[in-house]
Amino acid sequence: MPLDEIEIREMAIDDLADVFNLGERLFKAGLWPALYRTWDEYEVVNFFASDTETCLVARLDNKLVGFALGSFIEKRRSAWRYGYIVWLGVDPDIKRSGIGSELFSAMKEKFIELGARMIFIDTDARNDAAINFFKKLGFDHENKHIYMSLNLTHHPEYKQHRKSSKKWRIKPEAQPPSPELKQHRKSSSKDQTDV
Ligand SMILES: CC(C)(COP(=O)(O)OP(=O)(O)OC[C@H]1O[C@@H](n2cnc3c(N)ncnc32)[C@H](O)[C@@H]1OP(=O)(O)O)[C@@H](O)C(=O)NCCC(=O)NCCS
């Protein structure tokens, strides 16, 4: 596929649904259980709202074929500025065609323009495709980072919270009004007509 036919540009509001849907195909919880971030609609919308400049899409014949969502980070009172690519995805039907590399180059240019001194990425330790991909692009200094989890569902306070939130989820209007409430409504509507 000729790469010059691919349009890479900033993500626009009309791209949001396509980006979300492609991400749904790629970032499945079962596939990468250690991925601590969650892919959902809010993730895409929040990136669009807060990091518009560093959210890019790749389109081919008007079809979304990839995206990169990142942040430019500046530490207060420090010269430390860096780019962080949080989500990068390419349509699996056309992977290994160079689209991921093109998206990365565009992102890198953007970060350089903004003044970043370094780019960070992270991914699941078993995501060999992504690790090879980033290595090919020149990333090194792999640091192992451990994510651990604590299951809270057996904690007594969690159970209590679940119980009370279930109770509150029932709309009061869905339940038949108590005789006291009926009486109260009757008398207050009478009061209003009396005024
Ligand atoms: C990782 C990903 C973005 C790569 O996109 P891509 O468009 O297929 O990558 P490219 O075609 O630009 O590949 C560039 C190089 O990366 C390496 N690479 C890419 N995919 C690879 C794979 N599956 N296995 C081994 N190496 C791979 C190769 O060296 C490749 O060069 P080559 O094809 O000439 O050998 C894509 O596979 C993807 O969307 N994966 C699922 C989501 C994900 O894991 N995202 C990254 C973490 S957020």
Describe the protein's architecture and organization.
The chain is of the alpha+beta class and 195 residues long. The protein folds into 2 domains: 134 residues, 3-Layer(aba) Sandwich (Aminopeptidase), CATH 3.40.630; 39 residues, no CATH class. It has 6 helices and 5 strands. A 5-stranded mixed sheet has the order 1-2-3-4-5, sandwiched between helices. β4, α3 and β5 form a beta-alpha-beta unit. The termini are far apart. The C terminus is likely disordered. Bound molecules: coenzyme A. The site of coenzyme A has 19 residues, from β4, α3 and α4. The site of coenzyme A (COA) has 19 residues, from β4, α3 and α4.
Count of separate DSSP helical elements? 6
Rounded to an integer, what's the Rg over CA atoms? 25 Å
The spatial strand order of the largest sheet comes to 1-2-3-4-5
Order of helices and strands: EHHEEEHEHHH
Determine the CATH topology of the largest domain: Aminopeptidase
For the record, what is the CATH homologous superfamily label of the largest domain?
Answer: Gcn5-related N-acetyltransferase (GNAT)
Q: What number is the mean pLDDT?
A: 86
Major beta sheet summary: 5 strands, mixed
How big a fraction of the residues is strand?
15-25%
Q: What's the number of structural domains?
A: 2
Proportion of helical residues: 25-40%
Bound molecules: coenzyme A
Low-pLDDT parts are 190-195
Can you tell me the CATH architecture of the largest domain? 3-Layer(aba) Sandwich
